[in-house]
Amino acid sequence: MSWSASAGTPGRQRPVVTFGEPEGYDERGRGLSLAGRVAPRTAAAAACMVLGLGLIGGAVTGGWIVDDGGDASAATSFSSASGLWHNVPVDQLFPRTVQGTGAGPGGADRTWTRIAVAPAGGCSGAFDPLLSKALAPVGCRRLIRATYTDATQSYVTTVGLLFTKADSAGMTALAKRFASERLDRRTDLLPLPYAAKDTAAERFGPHQRASWTISVLTDAPVVAYAVSGWADGRTVDTPQPAADAEASGATTAAAQAGLGNEAEGLADRIERRLRQNIVGTATEKPS
Predict the structure, then answer these.
(1) Is the pTM value of this prediction over 0.85?
(2) Which of 87, 198, 207, 219 lies closest to 147, judged by CA?
(3) 31-48 pLDDT, tens per residue?
């Protein structure tokens, strides 16, 4: 609608009114121009919906594929780890020499030399009675141990790998219990040393244990541990967990001597080698 802007005599000049052409209606009673506008919008909205659903479906499917592959890989690694005690040479699990760069007090370097390897066997006599009871839920498939000394032959450390009979859920449950109840810090739950005759560890008995560490793995059926002491056979009234002996300001004899570092540093590097062998075994292609 448009109105004339010119003035005129009242009653003689009338406003000019202009109407647009009728649009007509479709069979539903809608204006044709409206129908023309709605249809493309509806089609576009439908296309966006289909595309969106496709992207979401693709993402979900992709997630399932990745998760399934990850779960399968983890299961393979866990399963392959249970047989490492007899599938891998002893020198690969317990090397003759272990380098501990930055493993000593204040970041000093350490070098450990293997002086004895215990025959693979069961767990009888390897742990204090209460520790044996705490480990009982996961069972004992095989225990392997080796004893090392430092470069000065002042300290001796026994490191062990307990291969359990548990599945992933069992190992996870045990790890949670050790963490929540702090079982790895109780002085009545200690591993025993392997005191091989005619070596620097010959006098390394239960009363010579100064520091220790225990690690319950959840990605392998293994409990790794290490226990350290002096090579001269001196007795220790109260052993100290490695984590406490390594803490800043610790003043116990074990802490001052760095025996917490000996146990923790050696256990850490043996555990690393174990994981390397797990990866190698899990990815090995059949001939």
Answers:
(1) no
(2) 198
(3) 444 444 444 555 555 544
